[in-house]
Design goal:
By secondary structure, this protein is an alpha/beta fold. The protein is built from 17 helices and 11 strands. 36% of the residues lie in helices and 18% in strands.
């Protein structure tokens, strides 16, 4: 199956699933996503033969295709044969449109009703399935799961102790949502009789199992799956649910009912995440990194962050609000790094690491935004591999101009991350 990225940016697949469920089930928030839909439809270059492949594999016919989709999807002749392009363009049973001025990419807003627009959006379901691999960018086969596991920061005992001290009652089963490579699950296995880690990425689950051998972690199990649907977990059987660096991607309209179902009365919910890294002894370099990672102009690193998840993380998970009818005793612990040395920030510091400059650059290459940039610029490989230089080389070069000491890949630097920890207790 071939997906060809357009010259303009197309939002990564992990947010497509979020938006598709939003279109389908939450029409009340549709207005804020119309631009995203237009961008998705008008900028994607699709190998139309993959539509036929999907139809054959799933034994289902090609979907109905509204006229505005036919007119705005770009088919590249070099990639798609005329026959397959024609087959897609002539898909039968076209849904009726209600645009007063005729179908066009900019005419979406002129639909008579949201309901009819949502009906037309449903015809894009197969297209979305093809564009989507999983909700997380790193679920793609091109993502280096081992590098992610090696370069990402770990969580200190103080964070886990904060969560464990908050918890009341039995410690029979803990569920780690969006477990990634199993870091949190492995640590908590010393405090619970059983730990179950779940993640929608097959690659992450494979990495978690590899790093958690049964002879060392006999009571830790990993299952592929999303946080919002856990059919393999019995109702009321969970003492604690945790999510480290994952909750900002959850579909909370579905998540909260599932948390109500699986948590026992008095059970603990604990979500935490970290945002930007700060080189605390290099204020000018940190400012440059912050600027590049937040600028939304086309082609910049900041333009590849996926929303709304990134925004939730940058705001330290404050947008995540456990429903009052399900949870009580909600507590938050936050930290914002400073640039006047180690520990110069405000709040309770959890996530920090001393690393070499070379490791810091490798860490930046695990960012989902960096991964998105690399996919859009396949010829821009890193200088260390003989290439012309990637986005990290470009940014770090600017940082070196501000702080020349950062040119030495073996120099050790102190790095801190802004963090947010949310804890809540299920009502009895």
């Amino acid at each position: 199956m071939t997906i060809v990225r357009s010259e303009r940016w197309v939002e990564p697949p992990h947010s497509i699933r979020y938006r598709w469920s939003t279109y389908r089930e939450q029409p009340s928030v549709f207005d804020s996503h119309i631009v995203d839909l237009e961008q998705l439809v008008t900028t994607a270059h699709i190998d139309a033969s993959s539509l036929s492949d999907h139809a054959n594999a799933s034994k289902t016919p090609l979907p109905s295709c509204p006229d505005f989709v036919k007119k705005t999807i770009t088919i590249k002749p070099a990639v798609v044969t005329a026959d397959t392009a024609s087959a897609f363009a002539s898909a039968s049973d076209t849904l009726p449109l209600s645009a007063t001025n005729g179908p066009s990419p900019t005419g979406i807003a002129s639909y008579e009703s949201k309901a009819k627009l949502i009906q037309s959006v449903k015809a894009l379901q197969t297209l979305l399935i093809i564009l989507e691999t999983t909700r997380k960018e790193w679920c793609k086969s091109t993502f280096n799961h081992a590098a992610y596991a090696a370069q990402r920061p770990s969580y200190p005992p103080s964070l886990y102790n904060t969560v464990l001290n908050y918890h009341h009652g039995p410690r029979t089963l803990c569920v780690d949502l969006g477990c990634g490579h199993g870091l949190v699950a492995r640590f908590l296995s010393a405090h619970f009789n059983h730990v179950l880690g779940t993640d929608p990425s097959p690659g992450m689950i494979a990495q978690a199992r590899k790093l958690s051998p049964k002879d060392s972690y006999p009571d830790v199990k990993f299952e592929e799956g999303g946080a919002e649907d856990l059919p393999f977990v019995e109702s009321g059987s969970v003492d604690m649910v945790v999510a480290g660096q994952a909750a900002h991607w959850f579909d909370f309209a579905k998540l909260w009912p599932e948390m109500r179902r699986i948590l026992r009365p008095g059970g603990t919910l604990a979500f935490w995440g970290y945002k930007d890294s700060v080189l605390v002894d290099f204020p000018r370099a940190s400012e440059i990194l912050h600027r590049h990672s937040h600028t939304k102009e086309k082609g910049t690193l900041g333009s590849y962050w996926s929303q709304p998840g990134r925004g939730i993380l940058e705001d330290k998970l404050r947008a995540i609000r456990p429903p009052e009818e399900i949870f009580e005793d909600v507590q938050r612990v936050e930290y914002e790094p400073g640039t006047e040395g180690k520990g110069s920030g405000e709040g309770t510091r959890f996530v920090e690491r001393r690393m070499k400059v070379g490791e810091a650059k490798a860490y930046l290459r695990t960012w989902s935004s960096t991964h998105g940039w690399m996919e859009a610029n396949p010829g821009r490989t890193m200088r260390a591999e003989g290439g012309p230089g990637d986005i990290v080389d470009e940014i770090w070069g600017e940082m070196v101009e501000a702080d020349p000491a950062l040119k030495d890949d073996d120099l050790e630097v102190d790095v801190e991350w802004g963090t947010g920890l949310l804890m809540a207790r299920k009502k009895s």
